[in-house]
């Protein structure tokens, strides 16, 4: 089966410690880690975490900066964060994420309402940061 619709495949996040970052995303955010053992064994350049069957977050160590030469100036992106990445969750997942973040002592913003996004206005949303300062929004749609 060939699917030619445009989708978000991955986002690369700069992190100080990819193994610790993978642990945060697994234990606190609830995402599946990928290639962590392979990274620690030196077989791959970075681990990832799975957002869903189609999207992952790559956890790139700052040491990769010298290999960011795909375009002139690409290496200058190291350490320059994206404003935020948004995770859309079902209502139960939204509540579970907020509870896990609280259990791990991760500060979160107040809950917002009617925030505009890719699928219209979200019922609720909030923001949090990972240990490397990458900002995430969690939301759910009705």
TrEMBL record:
Keywords: Dioxygenase, Oxidoreductase. InterPro entries: Glyas_Bleomycin-R_OHBP_Dase, Glyas_Fos-R_dOase_dom, GlyoxalaseI/FosfomycinResist, VOC_core. Pfam families: Glyoxalase (PF00903). Residues 7-141 form the VOC domain. Gene3D superfamilies: 2,3-Dihydroxybiphenyl 1,2-Dioxygenase, domain 1. The keyword Oxidoreductase applies. PANTHER family: GLYOXALASE DOMAIN-CONTAINING PROTEIN 5, GLYOXALASE FAMILY PROTEIN. This is Dioxygenase.
